[in-house]
Each structure stands twice: as C-alpha cells, then as structure tokens.
C-alpha cells in the first residue's frame, strides 16, 4: 500500500512538472500579453475532448489570438475558438486549426502508435495526466510527434518506437527537450 502511494506521488509530481511546457505558444513581450497567454493556455488545456491525438498552439499579439495546430474532431476546433473568444482582453480570434481527415486507417495507426510509445516501460510516465505531454498526430499515414520530454534519450526512444509501427509512411519528431528551446 505504501509503495503504491509513493508511486502515485511520483507520477503526480512528474505530471505537474511536464504540463506547463507542452502547449506551444508565441506570446509578445509585454506583461499583458503574457497574462493573456496564460489565460489562453488554461482555456485550451481545459477543453474536454483535447487528447493525445490533438495538438493545439497559439500566438498572442496584443488583443489578437491566433490558434493553430491539428485536431481529430471538428467540434474541438470550434470549441477552441469559442472559449478563447470569451477571454477578457481578447478582441480577435484567428482560428487556423486544421481538422484531420476522418480515416479508419489513421485511427488504427493512432492506436498502434499510442501502444508502441506509451506501452514501453520508460515512456509510460508521459501518458499520465489528463493531457499527456507527448502528442501523436496522424495525417494520411504520416505521423508527427510533438510536445515535451525530459531528455534527448526519451525523444530518441519515442522516435524509434514510432518508426516501428507498421503502415506508417513517415515520422516527424518535433518533440522538445524540457529546459531547451
């Protein structure tokens, strides 16, 4: 019992440490832009259907927020635009989020990539939390990994595991190492 509590506490700590960095953002240098950026980020990660198979990013310029990324559900694109539009201080929202095509083949690859990456012991910790820090984007058989990992070794492991999935045409590894740009 005590060991389970220690494991859970460690997993929770790792999750809390990796969550702030995984959503890509470009925010201007003023304090108001930074504050607005924090509010936008919060609203995006709180979207109920935002998952490991979606990747959202945003850019704050004054009172204009530009959303971009890829999502599997059209409703997630509209929900993202709607919640950001209602943030105090946001006057314009440019919604450049791409909705990925519906494809049973891509869905099969998504599941296989998830099992290949997060089913491997050392990578399991990245699957913890409401929104994992590694995102798997599949578009017509082409896979893109995005998000944040703790080390270059983890980035390499994710790439090797993703390339080992049958039926994948290509893998682009856009994972960032925490603490590095």
Radius of gyration of CA atoms, rounded to a whole number = 17 Å
* Beta-strand content estimate: 25-35%
The backbone outline, from C-alpha atoms, is globular
Number of helices in the DSSP assignment? 5
Order of neighbouring strands in the sheet with most strands: 1-2-3-4
Structural class: alpha/beta
Q: Which oligomerization state do the chains in this entry correspond to? A: single chain
Distance between the termini: 40 Å
* Low-confidence region ranges: 5-21
Helix-strand pattern: HEHEEHEHEEHE
Helix content: 25-40%
Could you tell me the mean pLDDT? 85
List how many beta strands DSSP finds: 7
Main sheet overview: 4 strands, mixed
Give a written overview of the molecule.
- It is a single chain.
- By secondary structure, the protein is α/β, with parallel strands linked by helices.
- The protein contains 5 helices and 7 strands, in the order αβαββαβαββαβ.
- A hairpin with a 2-residue loop joins β5 (134-139) and β6 (142-149).
- Mean pLDDT is 85; it is low at 5-21.
Compact summary:
The chain has five helices and seven strands; from the N terminus they run H-E-H-E-E-H-E-H-E-E-H-E. With 181 residues, the chain is α/β, with parallel strands linked by helices. The strands form two sheets. The protein has a four-stranded mixed sheet, with helices on one face. The chain has a three-stranded mixed sheet with strand order 5-6-7.
């Amino acid at each position: 019992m005590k060991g389970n509590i220690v494991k859970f506490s460690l997993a929770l700590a790792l999750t809390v440490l990796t969550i702030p960095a995984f959503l890509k953002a470009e925010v201007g240098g003023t304090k108001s832009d930074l504050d607005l950026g924090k509010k936008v980020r919060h609203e995006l990660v709180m979207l109920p259907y935002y998952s490991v198979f979606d990747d959202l990013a945003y850019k704050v310029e004054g009172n204009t927020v530009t959303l971009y990324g890829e999502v599997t559900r059209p409703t997630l694109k509209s929900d993202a635009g709607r919640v950001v539009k209602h943030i105090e201080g946001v006057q314009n929202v440019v919604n450049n989020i791409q909705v990925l095509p519906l494809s049973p083949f891509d869905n099969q690859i998504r599941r296989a990539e998830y099992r290949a990456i997060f089913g491997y012991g050392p990578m399991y910790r990245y699957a913890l939390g409401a929104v994992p820090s590694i995102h798997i984007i599949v578009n017509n058989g082409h896979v893109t990994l995005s998000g944040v990992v703790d080390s270059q070794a983890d980035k390499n492991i994710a790439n090797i595991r993703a390339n080992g999935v049958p039926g994948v045409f290509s893998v682009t590894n856009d994972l960032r190492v925490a603490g590095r740009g």
